[in-house]
Design goal:
The complex is a heterodimer of chains A (641) and B (643). With 641 residues, chain A is of the alpha+beta class. Chain A has 17 helices and 26 strands. In chain A, helix 8 crosses helix 15 and helix 16 packs antiparallel against helix 17. Helices cover 46% and strands 11% of the residues of chain B. Chain B is an alpha+beta fold. Classes of the chains: A alpha+beta (641), B alpha+beta (643). The interface between A and B is large, with 49 and 58 residues. Chain A: Keywords: Cell adhesion. Chain A: One of its GO terms (cellular component) is cell-substrate junction. Chain A: Pfam families: FERM_M, Kindlin_2_N, PH. Chain A: Belongs to the kindlin family.
Chain lengths: 641, 643
């Protein structure tokens, strides 16, 4: 058989080095070629991760037993011996970059499985990779790259389930710096500076939103095939908005990153919400930020869980034991009393605040002319159960008022209580809040409520100028809302609004708060819609196709209205004509639609629809094993066949 | 120390006296006055009557009787409770470490489900203070004293429970009067009403409140407490409580497409497949967050303090009701929030065209439940037609209550299904008992045990409906299958029914049959089963009403149970011969569960209450083996302490 020369570039020899030439015959298999190259290169190292890449054809030669003939390689082929895993800079949903080695040779779907395994994120099928937006004005901010966490040392993900140590995958527990990386992954980031938000903020029209979806990687091809190079920057995101079976114990990182993605989506107005909703989101962010500083992430190691539950049992038991004392205590419930000022706005009265002796007992406020008369009948009693409590506070102006709306048969009675100073205010405010929920002062949450009010008041004291460091208590409220509201309100004005929303969430634990945030996010009307600009067959103008987990919607670009909705469960089939780049879908009742994609490749649309269909099959089979084959079948298009 | 001791025994005595005197009082004049402490102000008053006296005058005789029965049952239950209490004292005294168990069991009726795990965990663990070795006399005394304290506190707690006498108007204009305590949910109250009215138990039944001043009506949701909203009525109120069928109550779950796909034309939705409906429900109610129907459209809003109504474009979101101000788009950022749902309820209104010059009569309002009169704090809204009103009101309810609504519905369906096949069940229960399946069944029942505790109502009435208490959303719904859920030994009312089973014709035909089985058989129909539910109160020792009843759960259960548990089997032979019909179950051999067995273990296990106290003490004394992690931990700790 004829012997011919094959030229192979070996990366390890440096970019300048000429390709190595080896003589081969056509029946030599790929494994043999690699062996020869390695011998010739005379470099001693672990070559096990290396494989041949065929540049002209943009293709990996991954089957060692195939002969050159079978692969169709002739003397003119330029091959390259290169590692399959290369470092890549991944931008996590939290916006933080991690440098890690990922697989450049397997389909992106498999690559993401590897990434997620290392990062300890379950359900990798919900995530994908996309190109970041090209940065235009580079001059200004070259140093804003931020910190990059390097975990390229991590072992390549093997097939084994990562073992846990100290509640984190064993790899992270090895050294303090890797432990820090895991903390970064598992704990939500402190609120960003308002400028950061403003800088990342861009126009939020629907066309803009559609742009982002043109940058997704193709799941069925490898990174190298898609032009990704070593050390490139890619974004890791949750792509499919159906989050299967989230369990806080095992999903610490997943939950945190999901929260980060949701938070940024809200802050950058990638998804719209109303002012009221924004204030709740802000309150939750504030709360999550505060709690995650104190309450470290819950460890997920099973032994720890046992201990946890044991401790809980013990706690319950103790409570059971001490219940007698507790109950006695509740019977002599604690009280508050102080001289406060009261004001009842009424029509045609201009009376100001009047001072009385106030007592707070159970859920009721009573007031008397003076302390001496407190044994007599009170002037009035107000039961706060079910009332609305709002702060009316200005730290600068030393005004500490509590506005109460107390329901009565005739309507709501508006009452203002004025306190002298912060401490007094926070105690009475806390009592009012608890009472409005039907809890008494004896409730265990009283002191924490007092504290959270005080820390919130502290926010007002900080001047908006020192908003760089977001440590401890001083958080600029502008960090919690989108630029629209940064413009609309001064921090001072925002504080009471956020505080009002905050009273409903102040008692949540970290995971509860995160889950609440996600719940409200998922309840937004536009949640889970990915937009793509398309042109429907027979139409002359561009329209927008919104793809959600259960439906497709057609949106009129000019008005922004939903024109039509099709649900997947009425879908019979969908086809892609790759030549004319058209997607055709048939629904029940002889409804046929066809469109070509304007802003994205039709493969992306195809993958979205197929991906969502795939996601919906998961609920039935409870197994943890990912049906990769099915995913590719549904999303692969012609490559999969 | 001695002082406290003395104080508490005094207190105990006093309270016993109180209850006794109450008993006497109740016999002479049926004043609805639960055992009370000196101080509880406005603890109970009656709803639907202008004052208490009037209420008593108003009551019809049978109502009075019923009320009496309730009260007596109440009292006897309490007394029984104390009796058993004393017994356990005596019983457990010889054993060294009297675990606080028996007493904490008493707390169960009063406390909520959460206390259940607490006590049961208690049970596995060795009693705290005294080491498992031989306790000294002092320790014993101390223990007893602690128990007394607990008992006293429990009594105080019980006395604090607020109760109302409520008059409920039924559709036919008649009324029923019942006593409702503050721990009862609307669902519980409806159970009682089902028994009292013999209506079918379909899911549309609804307890409503009407307010003649505002001309409003609102159906209480099944999970709400009834006492709380009623307590906020003014004393001279003319508000009423109604018990009616309301189609709209759960319509969204029967035809979710009409709500969630409301934009589509209705004809095309008409014959949607059940599978698709289910999927809709699954999508919208079973995800991480409940999805609210994306309602939007023009409604009329009555302007604050004015007589005019203004058209506005409204949108419903999970976070509240919004409208888009004039000249703005529908974009989220421009929306103005009219109201959020945390503190308001939604009410249907009647004849607002007259009252407020509304454009149509299809109005609803949003207000704080305590507001009873016209007020600027009420939001008045008016829709074009009735359907859109239903749409909006339902949407708002979904936004307000979320998944709870769906859980309520599922519980109601279980209940309805249970009552429909009730007749079937009696027979099947008997055949079931004869097949060797009781053990798994008992297990199953045990499975849901902890949640029930409070719910398992008076062993009599409630249990006559075999399906598990409906307010339990945690259970996987077993009822659809008539064979499974009825643990035969569960039903004390079985005695009457069991005897009747003999000639009871199997009515397998209509699974949807309404509660009173149709008397279409020519056989001399014995009192139909619903009667059974009614009867016990009359000639059996009155069943404890719900709240005290759980006291019955702990110890008293055994007596009625055995009877209930084995009668079913015998009737089989003739029964099936005469029935000759559709459900010919396996030949009924002599019941495998031996009477003795049935009398003791199954009853106990089915009842799935925390293991009875005496049992518990023994293992502790014998060996701290326990086996479970907690008890080991505890014993280790104790050892440490004693050393």
């Amino acid at each position: 058989m004829a012997v011919w020369d094959l030229s192979i570039t070996v990366e390890e020899l440096g970019p300048e080095a000429p390709p190595l030439k080896i003589s081969v015959t056509s029946d030599l298999h790929i494994g043999g070629v690699i062996l020869k190259v390695v011998e010739k290169s005379q470099i001693k190292q672990d070559w096990s991760d290396h494989a041949l890449w065929w540049e002209q054809k943009q293709q990996w030669l991954l089957k060692p037993s195939w002969t050159l003939d079978k692969c169709g390689i002739h003397a003119d082929a330029r091959l390259c011996l290169t590692p399959q895993h290369k470092p890549l800079r991944l931008i996590l949903p939290s916006g933080i970059s991690v440098r890690m080695r990922v697989c450049f040779s397997s389909p992106v779907f498999r690559t993401i499985m590897g990434i997620c395994k290392l990062l300890n994120i379950r359900r990798p099928e919900e995530l994908s990779l996309l190109w970041p937006v090209e940065e235009k004005k580079k001059k200004k901010d070259k140093d804003v790259e931020g910190e990059v966490y390097d975990i390229t040392r991590a072992p390549l993900p093997s097939s084994t389930i990562p073992t846990l140590a100290n509640g984190m995958p064993a790899f992270f527990a090895e050294a303090p710096d890797t432990e820090a990386v895991y903390k970064m992954l598992a704990i939500s980031q402190p609120p960003p500076a308002p400028e950061t938000i403003a800088k990342l903020y861009r126009s939020t029209n629907i066309m803009e939103k559609a742009q982002i979806n043109s940058r997704w990687m193709d799941s069925s091809r490898s990174l190298l095939q898609q032009g990704v190079k070593e050390n490139d920057k890619l974004i890791l995101r949750f792509k499919y908005y159906t989050f299967h079976n989230i369990t806080p114990q095992t999903d610490v990182v997943r939950l945190t990153q999901l929260y980060e993605q949701a938070r940024w989506a809200i802050l950058l107005e990638e998804i719209e919400c109303t002012e009221e909703e924004m204030m709740v989101f802000a309150a939750l962010q504030y709360h999550i930020g505060k709690v995650s500083v104190t309450e470290q992430f819950v460890t997920s190691c099973p032994a720890m869980e046992d201990l946890d539950s044991a401790l809980q049992c013990l706690e319950v038991k103790m409570e059971g034991e001490s219940s007698a004392d507790d109950m006695l205590e509740t019977m002599t419930a604690p009280e508050l009393h102080d001289y406060l000022k009261i004001f009842r706005p009424k029509r045609l009265t201009l009376k100001g605040y009047k001072q009385y002796w106030f007592t707070f007992k159970d859920t009721t406020i009573s007031y008397y002319k003076s302390k001496e008369e407190s044994s007599k009948e009170p002037i009035q009693q107000m039961n706060l159960k079910g009332c609305e409590v709002a702060p009316d506070v200005s730290v600068a102006g030393q005004k500490f008022c509590i506005r109460l709306l107390i329901p009565g048969p005739e309507g709501m009675n508006e009452v203002y209580l004025r306190c002298e100073h912060e401490q007094q205010y926070s105690r009475w405010m806390a009592a009012c809040r608890l009472a409005s929920k039907g809890k008494t002062l004896a409730d265990s949450s009283f002191s924490s409520e007092v504290q959270s009010i005080q820390s919130f008041l502290a926010m007002q004291k900080t001047t908006p100028s020192n908003n760089t460091a977001q440590t401890d208590e001083s958080i600029n409220t502008h960090s919690l809302v989108s630029p629209r509201y940064q413009k609309k309100y001064k921090p001072k004005q925002l504080t009471p609004k956020i505080l009002e929303a905050y009273q409903n969430v102040a008692q949540l634990s970290l995971t509860d708060a995160i889950q609440k945030f996600l719940q409200i996010w998922q309840a937004l009307p536009d949640f889970g819609l990915s937009y793509i600009v398309v042109r429907f067959k027979g139409c002359r103008k561009d329209e927008v196709l919104g793809i959600a987990n259960n439906r497709l919607i057609r949106i009129d670009l000019s008005v922004g209205d939903v024109v039509k909705t099709w649900r997947y469960n009425t879908m019979r089939q969908w086809n892609v004509n790759w030549d004319i780049k058209q997607v055709a879908i048939e629904f029940d009742g002889n409804v046929n639609i066809a469109f070509s994609c304007v802003t994205a490749d039709c493969k992306i649309v195809h993958e979205y629809i197929g991906g969502y269909i795939f996601m919906s099959t998961r609920s039935r089979e409870q197994s943890e094993i990912l049906n990769e084959e099915l995913f590719h079948k549904l999303t692969g298009g012609h490559e999969a066949l | 120390m001695d002082d406290i001791d003395a104080m508490f025994s005094d207190m105990l005595q006093e309270m016993d006296l109180l209850t006794q005197s109450l008993g006497a009082e109740a016999e002479s004049a049926p004043l609805p006055k639960p055992p009370s402490l000196p101080d509880p102000p406005e603890m109970n008053f009656s709803i639907g009557f202008t004052d208490l006296n009037a209420s008593l005058h108003d009551l019809e005789d049978n109502d009075l009787d019923a009320l009496m029965a309730d009260l007596v049952a109440d009292i006897s239950a309490t007394e029984e409770k104390f009796a058993t209490e004393r017994d356990t004292f005596k019983e457990s005294a010889p054993f060294a470490p009297v675990p606080s168990q028996p007493q904490s069991n008493f707390s169960l009726p009063a406390s909520t489900d959460t206390s259940k795990p607490a006590t049961s965990s208690n049970s596995t663990v060795a009693p705290p203070p005294p080491p498992a070795s031989k306790p000294s006399k002092e320790e014993l005394e101390e223990q007893i004293k602690a128990d007394k304290i607990k008992l006293a506190l429990e009594k105080l707690k019980e006395a604090k429970v607020k109760k109302l006498v409520v008059k409920v108007e039924i559709t036919d204009g008649s009324s029923k009067t019942l006593m409702v305590d503050e721990r009862q949910t609307v669902r519980d109250v409806m159970e009682t009403l089902f028994e009292k009215t013999h209506c079918d138990c379909n899911v549309d039944w609804c307890v409503c409140e009407t307010n003649p001043d505002l001309q409003t009506e609102r159906g209480f949701e099944d999970h709400e407490n009834l006492v709380e909203p009623l307590s906020t009525w003014t004393r001279d109120t003319e508000n009423k409580v109604l018990f009616q069928e309301k189609k709209y109550k759960y319509e969204v779950f029967r035809n979710p497409q009409n709500f969630y796909l409301w934009k589509k034309d209705k004809a095309s939705l008409k014959d949607m497949k059940d599978k698709d409906k289910e999927q809709l429900l699954e999508e919208n109610f079973c995800g991480a967050s409940v999805i609210v129907p994306d309602l939007e459209g023009v409604l009329y809003l009555k302007e604050d303090g004015k007589k005019s109504w203004k058209q506005r474009y409204f949108l419903l979101r999970a976070s509240g009701l919004y409208y888009s101000p004039k000249g703005k788009t529908k974009a989220s950022r421009d929306l103005v929030c009219l109201v959020q749902f945390d503190n308001v309820n939604v009410y249907f209104c009647k004849e607002y065209r007259n009252k407020y010059k509304a454009p149509t009569d299809h109005c609803f309002i949003l207000k704080h439940p305590q507001i009873q009169k016209e007020s600027q704090y009420i939001k008045y809204l008016c829709c074009d037609d009735e359907w859109s009103m239903t749409l909006w009101v339902t949407g708002i309810r979904i936004a307000k209550y979320g998944k709870q609504l769906y859980d309520n519905y599922k519980a109601a369906v279980r209940k309805a299904a249970g009552s429909a096949i009730w007749a079937n069940r009696t027979i099947q229960a008997s055949s079931n008992a004869s097949t060797p399946s009781p053990t798994p069944k008992a297990k199953a029942a045990n499975g849901h045990a902890p949640q029930h505790a409070v719910e398992t109502k008076g062993p009599s009435n409630q249990t006559s409906f075999p399906p598990p208490p409906p307010s339990m959303d945690i259970l996987p719904p077993p009822p659809p299958d008539p064979m499974l859920p009825p643990p035969p030994p569960l039903a004390p009312p079985a005695p009457p029914s069991a005897t009747k089973v003999n000639n009871f014709p199997p009515p397998p035909q209509l699974p949807k049959s309404s509660f009173p089985p149709p008397p279409m058989d020519d056989l001399p129909p014995p009192p139909p089963p619903p009667e059974d539910a009614e009867l016990p109160p009359d000639f059996l020792p009155p069943p404890p009403p719900s709240f005290t009843s759980s006291a019955g759960d702990m110890l008293p259960p055994p007596p009625p149970d055995p009877i209930g548990s084995f009668p079913p089997p015998p009737p089989a032979p003739q029964n099936f011969a005469s029935a000759g019909g559709p459900p010919p179950p396996p030949p009924p051999p002599p019941p495998p569960p031996a009477p003795a067995l049935a009398a003791t273990t199954p009853a106990g296990s089915v009842r799935k209450v925390a293991p009875p106290p005496p049992k518990r003490t023994t293992p502790q004394l014998a060996a701290p083996s326990g086996g479970d992690f907690m008890s080991e931990l505890m014993t280790a700790m104790q050892k440490k302490r004693t050393q």
